[in-house]
Design goal:
About 10% of the residues lie in helices and about 55% in strands. With about 775 residues, the protein is mainly beta. The protein has one domain (about 1-775): Maltoporin, Chain A (Beta Barrel), CATH 2.40.170.20. The longest helix has 25 residues, at about 10-35. This is Pesticin receptor.
Length: about 775
C-alpha cells in the first residue's frame, strides 16, 4: 500500500494511475508532435543524452565549450547503450558490456533539481537507498542484496578510478556511502551484479561510479550556474556552482577548478522540548581542483583534490507508529534534544598513465580522510528506563564520531582493444585506520551528568590483491572472458567501554584475517553490429572481521561470544540482451539473474552479546528491462522496470528470521517511465519532459525479527516535470519534483520500538518547485 492525502490506496491502484498518467502524457506529446514538422532520426545519431555522455567521457571540455547543447535537448537522466563506460576498466559502448549498466547524465540531473544521492538513485528500479537521516548518511543496495541494516557495504563506490569509503564496521563503511554533489561530474555509472574481480571487496551487489570531467589543454572556458526552489511544508533551497578550465600550456597542461554550495531549507518539524521547524535543513559545500599534464603523447599525469563538507541541523526522520500512521502528524517528529550532523570528506588522487603500445599502464594513488559527528535524541525511550532505575534525566543523547584515513595504491596494465586477445591485470593495496567513538550523555535539570556509557572502537584494515581477466575474440561476433581476483585482508581491532553505567571498564583487542577469491566468466554474441546477447557468471564477497565483546555484570569477566565473523559470499548467474534497433529509433536492454547468497552478515546476538553474525542464506531472482523509443529526433520515450523475488532459503534464528522471509528494503516491483519533447520556441530551443517512478511495498526488517520488528513500507508513485529553454548565452530550466506531493517512505528504523520508541521513517521530499540557470563563458 502507499499513503497519500486523503487516505491509503492499494499498490495496484497506484500502478494503474501511473499507467493512465503516462498514456495521457504520451497522447499529448504525440498530438503536439503531429502538429509540427516531423524530423526523422538519423542513423547513428542516437538519443541526445547518450551522445552528451559519450562525448564528455572523451573530453568534458567539448561539452562545456558547446554549451551542452545536446544535453539541454533532453530532460532524461537515464541513457542506454550508446554511452561509453569504463565498467571493464576500458572505455567502450555500454551496449557491448556483458552486464547491466546504467548511466545518469549529470547535466540532466541538475536540470531536474537533483541535489543528493537519494535524488540520483530515485529513477533506478532495482537500486535501493536506506537513508541514514540526511545528506551523507545512507546505504546503497542493488538487486536486493541487503539484509536491512547492513554490516558492511554491498555496493562499491568509486570516483573515477579511486575507491572511497571504509570496508569496516568501525569506519561506518555501510552507512556512509559517498553522497557527492554534482561537482563538475560528467555522468554517473551504475554497474549491476558482483564487480569483485575488477573492483574488489564491498562490490558484491554492484558498483556506483562518479565520473568527473577532465581538464582541457586547448581552451579557456567555464560555466556558472544557480538554482532556487521551494519545498512544500519546508523552506527555500539554493544551489550555486562554478567551473573554470585554464590551459597552462597548449596541448601539455591544464587546470580545472569547480566549486559548489547547496542549501536545503528542510521540511521536517519537531515537537517536544527541542521543538522547531524545518529541523533537517542542511548546507553542503565542495571544491575540486584537477591538474592534467601530458609531457609526451604517451605519458599523462592527472592530480585531483576534492573537499566536501556537509552540515545538517537535524535528521530527516519522521516518527511513525507500527500501524503505519505518523505519530505526531505529517512530517513531524518528537525531539527533546537537537540532532546536528557534520561530515568532512577529503580525497586526493594521482593517476599516472603511460602507453607502451602493447599495453597501457596506470599507477593510481589515493588518500581519503573522512570525519563525521552525529548527535541523536534517545530521551523518549531511555529516560523512562533510567527513571525506573532511580535516575531521573532530562535528555539522553548518544554523540557519535567516525574518523577514517584510507590509502590505496593500484597498478594496472590494460591491453589495446579490438584484438583477438585482450586482457587486464593489476595489483591493489588498501590500508585503512578507523576510529568510532560513541558517548551516551545525559542531562538533568540543565546540568550534565557525564557519560552514562562510552564506547570506543579502533580498527585497522589492510588488503593486498591481484586481479586480471582475459577476453578471447575468436570471431568478430564472439567474445569469451574469464577473470579472477585473489585478496588477503588482515584486521586489528580494539574495543573500550566505560561510563557511569558500566560496572567494569572494558579494554579488549581483536584480530582477524581471511583470503578470498572472486571469479567472473562471460560469453557474448553479436547478433548484428548493434545487438548482442550475453551470459555472465560472477562471484562476490564481503570481508569478515573481529567482533565486539561485553563484560558480565555478575562476574566482571569478558563474554566472548564469537571473536570473529566470516566473509559472506554470493554467486550471480545472468543472461541479457542489448540492442539499438530501427536506425537507433529504439534502444533495449533486458536481463535476468539468479543470485545465491551464503553466510549473510547480520546484527544478531551470541550468548546474550550483541554481535555480528553469519546467519542465513538467500536466493534472489530478478528481471530487468529498460528501453528508449525515439519516433523522431525531437521526441523520445523511456521506461525501466525491475522485478525482484528475494527471500531467505535458510533461516537465521539469532535475528528472528525464518526460511522464506523476504529480504528487507527490497520491492518486488519498481518502474519508471518518462517522455521528452524538443521543439522550437521563437528563436530558442525548448524541452519539455515528464517522468513517473513507482516503488512497490517493502519490509523494513525480517517478518519474525524481534530486535528490529518488521514494518511495512507502503508503495508509492512520484511524478516529476521539467521545462527548459536554451537561450543564446544561457540555459534556463524549470522543474517540479513530486508534483502531486505524495507521501513516500524511503526507509524505516524500528530498532527502538522494543524500548518504547517510535519507528524512525525517512520520507521522500515533498513537492519542490524550482528554476535552474546555467551560463557558459
Amino acid at each position: 500500500m502507499a499513503s497519500k492525502k486523503g487516505g491509503v490506496v492499494a499498490e495496484s491502484t497506484i500502478f494503474r494511475r501511473t499507467l493512465v498518467a503516462v498514456t495521457v502524457m504520451r497522447m499529448f506529446l504525440a498530438a503536439s508532435d503531429a502538429c509540427a514538422q516531423a524530423e526523422p532520426a538519423q542513423p547513428g545519431a542516437g538519443t541526445p543524452p547518450p551522445a552528451v555522455a559519450a562525448e564528455g567521457a572523451a573530453s568534458g571540455a567539448d561539452r562545456d565549450r558547446q554549451g551542452s547543447a545536446k544535453g539541454r535537448a533532453s530532460g532524461a537522466a537515464i541513457t542506454l547503450n550508446s554511452v561509453e563506460v569504463t565498467a571493464n576498466r576500458r572505455r567502450e559502448p555500454a551496449r557491448e558490456v556483458p552486464m547491466k549498466v546504467d548511466t545518469l547524465s549529470s547535466d540532466a540531473l541538475q536540470k531536474s533539481g537533483a541535489t543528493k544521492l537519494s535524488d540520483y538513485l530515485s529513477t533506478q528500479p532495482g537500486v535501493g537507498f536506506d537513508s541514514g537521516g540526511g545528506p551523507g548518511q545512507g546505504t546503497i543496495s542493488m538487486r536486493g542484496v541487503t539484509a536491512g541494516k547492513d554490516v558492511g557495504p554491498t555496493v562499491g563506490v568509486y570516483v573515477d578510478d579511486t575507491p572511497l569509503g571504509s570496508n569496516t564496521v568501525s569506519g561506518g563503511g555501510a552507512a556512509l556511502a559517498l553522497d557527492m554533489g554534482l561537482l563538475d561530474l560528467n555522468h554517473i555509472e551504475i554497474l549491476f551484479g558482483p564487480q569483485g574481480t575488477l573492483y574488489g571487496a564491498g562490490a558484491m551487489g554492484g558498483l556506483l561510479k562518479y565520473v568527473t570531467n577532465q581538464p582541457d589543454t586547448e581552451s579557456f572556458f567555464g560555466t556558472v550556474g544557480t538554482s532556487f526552489s521551494s519545498t512544500w511544508h519546508g523552506g527555500l533551497n539554493n544551489t550555486t556552482n562554478v567551473v573554470l578550465n585554464v590551459p597552462l600550456k597548449s596541448d601539455v597542461a591544464a587546470l580545472r577548478i569547480a566549486a559548489f554550495n547547496n542549501h536545503d531549507g528542510g521540511y521536517v518539524d519537531a515537537t517536544g522540548a527541542a521543538a522547531g521547524t524545518r529541523i533537517n535543513r542542511s548546507d553542503t559545500t565542495g571544491v575540486r581542483a584537477s591538474l592534467l599534464v601530458t609531457p609526451t603523447r604517451k605519458l599523462t599525469f592527472r592530480f585531483t583534490a576534492t573537499l566536501q563538507n556537509i552540515n545538517s541541523n537535524g535528521q530527516n526522520y519522521v516518527d511513525y507508529g507500527m500501524d503505519g500512521r505518523p505519530a505526531y502528524g505529517a512530517l513531524t517528529k518528537l525531539q527533546d534534544a537537537q540532532e546536528p550532523y557534520h561530515q568532512s570528506n577529503q580525497f586526493y588522487t594521482a593517476n599516472a598513465e603511460y602507453d607502451f603500445g602493447w599495453a597501457r599502464l596506470n599507477a593510481i594513488s589515493a588518500y581519503q580522510s573522512l570525519r563525521t559527528s552525529t548527535t541523536l535524541d534517545f530521551t523518549p525511550f531511555y529516560a523512562p528506563i533510567l527513571a525506573a532505575g532511580g535516575l531521573d534525566v532530562s535528555t539522553v543523547t548518544p554523540n557519535s564520531s567516525v574518523g577514517t584515513n584510507k590509502v590505496t595504491q593500484e597498478l594496472r596494465l590494460t591491453s589495446p582493444g579490438n584484438r583477438t586477445l585482450e586482457w587486464v591485470a593489476g595489483l591493489y593495496y588498501d590500508h585503512e585506520h578507523s576510529t568510532t567513538l560513541q558517548a551516551y550523555r545525559a542531562t538533568a535539570g540543565g546540568r550534565s551528568l557525564g557519560d552514562l556509557e562510552k564506547l570506543g572502537y579502533t580498527g585497522s584494515y589492510q588488503e593486498f590483491a591481484a586481479y586480471g581477466d582475459v577476453t578471447y575474440n575468436p570471431t568478430s561476433r564472439i567474445a569469451l572472458t574469464a577473470g579472477m581476483r585473489i585478496a588477503h585482508n588482515s584486521q586489528d581491532y580494539r574495543q573500550e567501554t566505560s561510563g557511569l553505567l558500566v560496572p567494569t571498564p572494558l579494554s579488549a583487542p581483536g584480530a582477524s584475517s581471511d583470503t578470498s577469491k572472486t571469479y567472473m566468466f562471460t560469453a557474448s554474441y553479436k547478433l548484428t553490429p548493434k545487438s548482442n546477447v550475453y551470459a555472465r557468471v560472477a562471484s562476490g564477497y564481503r570481508p569478515g572481521g573481529p567482533n565486539s565483546m561485553a563484560v558480565s555484570a555478575v562476574t566482571g569477566q569478558l563474554i566472548a561470544g564469537n571473536p570473529t565473523y566470516k566473509p559472506d559470499t554470493l554467486w550471480n548467474y545472468e543472461i541479457g540482451y542489448k540492442a539499438d534497433l530501427l536506425d537507433n529509433r529504439v534502444s533495449v536492454a533486458l536481463s535476468a539473474y539468479d543470485i545465491e547468497w551464503h553466510d549473510i552478515q547480520q546484527y544478531g546476538a551470541v550468548d546474550g552479546v550483541a554481535q555480528l553474525v553469519n546467519a542465513g542464506n538467500a536466493r534472489i531472482k530478478g528481471l530487468e528491462a529498460s528501453g528508449v523509443v525515439r519516433p523522431t529526433s525531437a521526441l523520445s520515450f523511456n521506461a525501466s522496470l525491475a522485478a525482484i523475488d528475494a527471500y531467505l532459503t535458510k533461516g537465521a534464528p539469532s535475528v528472528g528470521a525464518r526460511a522464506g522471509d523476504r529480504l528487507p528494503n527490497t520491492a518486488k516491483f519498481a518502474a519508471s517511465v518518462g517522455a521528452s519533447w524538443r521543439f522550437p520556441l521563437g528563436p530558442w530551443s525548448a524541452t519539455a519532459s515528464a517522468a513517473e517512478r513507482f516503488v512497490g511495498e517493502r519490509h523494513a526488517s525480517f517478518a519474525g525479527a524481534t530486535g528490529s520488528p518488521d514494518f511495512i513500507l507502503p508503495a508509492y508513485a512520484v511524478t516529476d516535470l521539467q521545462f527548459g529553454v536554451d537561450l543564446r548565452y544561457a540555459s534556463l530550466s524549470f522543474f517540479v519534483r513530486n508534483l502531486f506531493n505524495r507521501e513516500g517512505l524511503l526507509s524505516a528504523n524500528t530498532s527502538y520500538v522494543p524500548l518504547g520508541g517510535n519507528v524512525w521513517a525517512s520520507v521522500i521530499q515533498p513537492r519542490t518547485i524550482g528554476v535552474q540557470l546555467s551560463a557558459p563563458f
